[in-house]
């Protein structure tokens, strides 16, 4: 998952070296989101997850994604269109890694699946944060002793690719499918419409859309907010990068704790609690731009809560839908959510230019408010008893 934000983590350097506008910078992440949606739909339509063993599919996609990411490090400023194309292809490959990993985890667990998926999403979160950690290390200085001057952003891209190749080797050699592999299913395009007509599924999907409205825009821009805040206060740039890493990575802890909570008090209340905290942080974060210490604390709480509920929306859909169409339901949920993220990722820099950081980030609270409403309505319905062993 280091591939996802490998380019986003080095956007200040790319913007400076390649003279990119903030709109162009946003496309470094948007292109991955679009590629992920395309890859997920193609995989479902071609039934690739049934034709290939999940470990092999994960290994192949991780390796090809690493190759696409590595090629970006070889390009110069005239190749920005090529960068976007390679980022799109990276997203396509990640669609064979993340959903496949979810499926693999589910084959090992029947009881405690909420916690298990929470651990997996926690791993996704830490992996997505890792480019910020790589970027905070003095790799440029270390490598200069051996290979002359090397652009730091290229080093980050290459190291992220090495991480993905390592993951591919682990998947190929060590990962196995568990004993609870579900029966093969095909994408049912008619069920696409039924999902939005069934009240329980519709509420859960709307809750997920509210969550996704905020999540990836926060992951994309909160580290940049911290960099700008630290720079304005003349604080250490390396410390800002470490704060950006921690802001995203701490969500891994949130995912595990939310998984434990959901198995005890239910998925509805777990998601509502996460959305309340993350939405509050979205409203508050921009107000502390001039106080980087306080801003860091707010961002850490935000990062903890913003992804904590992610796995629980997927678990809720799997419990509420017709068991014959779980794959279809999860594909539709994922694709709708990731398409929505492209709008908010692009909207934040536009609002920031005209209204400032506070208004740009406060806009993200619309998503949690929408999600809270629908998850509360779901909890009050009879269908909630299908979730989390009857806990709702």
Could you outline the blueprint of secondary structure elements for this entry?
Layout: H1 11-18, H2 22-46, H3 48-51, H4 54-72, H5 80-94, H6 98-106, H7 113-136, H8 139-147, H9 152-173, H10 191-195, H11 199-232, H12 237-249, H13 251-265, H14 267-285, H15 292-306, H16 310-320, H17 326-355, H18 357-362, H19 366-380
Helix pairs in contact: 2-5, 2-17, 4-5, 4-6, 4-9, 6-7, 7-9, 7-12, 7-13, 7-16, 11-12, 11-14, 11-15, 11-16, 11-17, 11-19, 12-15, 13-14, 13-15, 14-15, 14-16, 14-19
Note down, in words, how this protein is organized.
This protein has 392 residues and is mainly α. Helix content is 76%, strand content 0%. The longest helix has 34 residues, at 199-232. The protein contains 19 helices and no strands. It has helices at 11-18, 22-46, 48-51, 54-72, 80-94, 98-106, 113-136, 139-147, 152-173, 191-195, 199-232, 237-249, 251-265, 267-285, 292-306, 310-320, 326-355, 357-362, 366-380. The model has no long low-confidence stretch (mean pLDDT 89). It has a single domain, classed as Up-down Bundle (Growth Hormone, Chain: A), CATH 1.20.1250.20.
Number of domains: 1
How many beta-strand runs? 0
Q: Which class do the helix and strand fractions yield?
A: mainly alpha
Please describe the biggest sheet, giving its number of strands, its sense, and whether it closes into a barrel: none
Q: Could you give me the name of the CATH homologous superfamily?
A: MFS general substrate transporter like domains
What's the CATH C level? Mainly Alpha
List keywords for this structure.
Growth Hormone, Chain: A; 392 residues; 19 helices; mainly alpha; globular
